[in-house]
Amino acid sequence: MIDSLKGTCANYGLGNDGNEFKIITQVFLYKFLNDKYAFEAKRIRPELAKAASWEQALSAMKANDLKMLQLQMGPDTARLKPDHFIASLFSRQNAPEFAKLFDDTLRDIAITNNDIFAVKTDGGAKVTLFDRVSEYIADPSKRDDFCRAIINTLVEFSFERIFTQKYDFYATLFEYLIKDYNKDSGGKYAEYYTPHAVAKIMAAILVPEGVRGKVKSVSCYDPSAGSGTLLMNLAHAIGEQRCTIYSQDISQKSSGLLRLNLILNNLVHSIPNIIQGNTLTHPYHRDGKALKHFDYIVSNPPFKMDFSDFRNDLETKENKERFFAGVPNIPKKATEKMSIYQLFLQHIIYSLKPGGKAAVVVPTGFISAQSGIDKNIRKRLVDKKMLAGVVSMPSNIFATTGTNVSILFIDSSNRDGVVLVDASSLGTKIKDGKNQKTLLSEKEEDHIVTTFNRKQAVEGFSVVVEYDEIAKKNYSFNAGQYFDVKIEYVDLTPAQFEAKMQGFSDNLESLFKKSAELDREIRKQLAGVRFAR
């Protein structure tokens, strides 16, 4: 169905157009909500499933019966009217101004369900579920046909059979849906898609197998949420009904994708906590006037970005405690290389509850920088004893950036035994378009998680160190600096020693002879060139 919708957009001149993303995701969501309503209605009233047309049977229900049916549906099911159904639009597709009818239907669904499905901005405005989709077609004369093509595509498919599927199915479906629309374009506030391996490792270490099913009523936060990959993996590890999601992201596009992700993953109850806005200048989530603190925080913040236009607004008395290590200065050149991740990382540390846990993707340079804000942040984590460990990932784990990354794990209840893992040699390199990408196997992912959670020291791979050891190493989190240097000792008899030394001598003599011969040959060739001239 997704491919068919993309084909329809291409046929009407919207292939690879910026608005194609909005059309595909909104039409997909309309279909999903329609079929989810059908699934729930048939579950509650089995006679609807036996009817030749469940839509007609439901439309014939008395008003009170219909109201009671909707009250019995779960809170994650959209409240639809009979004329909202895809079958209703399909039967009216030859009506004049069908595009207007199509848009009005989607807008009415959005308004009817605004309290449940609207995303808020940090200024308090609500971003509704649907736009007027047909208006993305520049030529008004083609809008009716475009909307008819959409409806004819939607009516041929049914999502009802997928509502018993588990998280991994929806994660795959979501990734396929957005694969062409969530790439790092390199621009300001570009969306960053976190690889599944990274998200899985973060969730599996934050919520180990032994505690799954026991964690409940916790808050999960991402201050740079993107499309929500990290939050979805974390919520799945905890249990979707055992946690509440909170997020903020400056990108309108990312906030829309996150809303879609929450709907797909039975986390509709968290949609009111999705905020579109600037986390650094206007952090939204609060308890009273104070910033809210969270049980779990995950984040893959942008690493480098020009934030010089609001940099001075951050260096205030009110922000001094939040940005305890300082605010990066504005460079005279290359302002786009300002280290914005340093601010997100400080915000995360400040936003963590006592006993809370966090996992943050950082550039690997952060873990051993010997001065400045990076070192001050690491010093805080060590001195306050709130570091669980670090996993340094293979290069090119992100296909769209050459920056090496590490995952920083924060745990304010970890009093001893910091785990440092060097996983940089793992993975298989493949070509991903024009870029090179490193893929971890499931076995390698599990090896990282098991080693970390069991606090195992594995030669050349991981080490477990105490806080005072880290302080003595200038607060470096680089595993390699703690590995033992091993020298191989071999017992030799005097005769064996003499034979080894003679071998070295003979080898050097042979190399010198070859070098002299090569030098003579080069001189002859040069002399021949001069003679020819």
CATH-defined topology of the largest domain: Rossmann fold
SS summary, helix count: 19
Strand-pairing-aware structural class? alpha/beta
> Which CATH class of the largest domain is shown?
Alpha Beta
The CATH architecture designation of the largest domain is: 3-Layer(aba) Sandwich
Shape: globular
Number of separate structural domains: 3
Strand line-up across the major sheet: 2-1-5-4-3-8-9-11-10-12-15
Percent helix among the residues? 40-55%
Query: In percent terms, what proportion of residues is strand?
Result: 5-15%
For CATH, the homologous superfamily of the largest domain is named as Vaccinia Virus protein VP39
* Arithmetic mean pLDDT: 87
- Spans of at least 5 consecutive residues with low confidence: 184-192
In total, the number of strands is: 15
Please summarize the sheet with the most strands. 11 strands, mixed
Q: How far is the N terminus from the C terminus?
A: 74 Å
Using the CA coordinates, give the radius of gyration.
30 Å
